[in-house]
Amino acid sequence: MKYEECLKCGQTSPRWSFFGNTLAAIFKVLIGNLTGSKGLVADGVHSAADAMSSLFILVALKVADKPHDEKHPYGYGKIEYISTLCASSFLFVGAGSILIDALRSFKSSTHDMPGNAALLATVISLCFSYLMYDSNKCAGTQLSSPAMLADANESKADSITSVAVLLGLIGAKLGYPDADTVAAVIVSLFIFNMSVEMFLQGINGLIDMAADPETVAEIASATVTVEGVTGVKSIKSRQMGQKKWVDLEIEVSRSKSMLEVHEITQEVRALVLGMVDGISGLSVTTYPV
Prior knowledge:
By secondary structure, this protein is mainly alpha-helical. The chain has helices at about 5-35, 40-65, 80-110, 115-145, 145-175, 180-205, 215-225, 260-275; strands at about 230-240, 245-250, 280-289.
């Protein structure tokens, strides 16, 4: 974690995402219906799905923050991956409804000319979505939170789909009545893609995805500085939401007494937990050489 303020930001960003996505959904759907913009309505449905997933993520972050107990010795961190799966499901359903509505519009050949207010509303939505993306991306990266990063990706998708809607509206104004509906199709396909990516991320987390190589290298570098450690035999890690659990096996001379080995493992444990961020559990075993 780069700054201490990241902890506070990590607590407030998910709340702002939920309220922000809710207001954005109402705003887009309302203006889209008033101006006859199917693309803006589609973007509003996307924001509504984002709001629901943000709510799941907000609840998941509260649960994930609970300390580990007897029934859950590794803590509750993996609920962040479950919230990611729920968020991807909402996005998938939302994308399906947008696509079906757009295809019906093509079939009926009815295209309303969007009003000028739709252009302004889309620009406002684009700027707002990017601000939410930037906030969640920063907090999620610094805290290594898969749930907040998923929320950031949703805001990023919202920004990009707003660009597609804006281009569609401009096209309609230039005399291409199908452009706005084409934008709705593009929005739906993009959301489909995002939902699949998020689903796969959630699955990877649930099947004990390892920590990033940089963290593993940092653990190894810290371990070998302890006097009495002759090498690192293995490092096995699992990502548990924002935190990591690590099983570390170190090489120690067989000439060491049991007391000396115990002191070495305790020193390794204290050093690694103190130097490497994001580790909530560390098991240290020894291999005599």
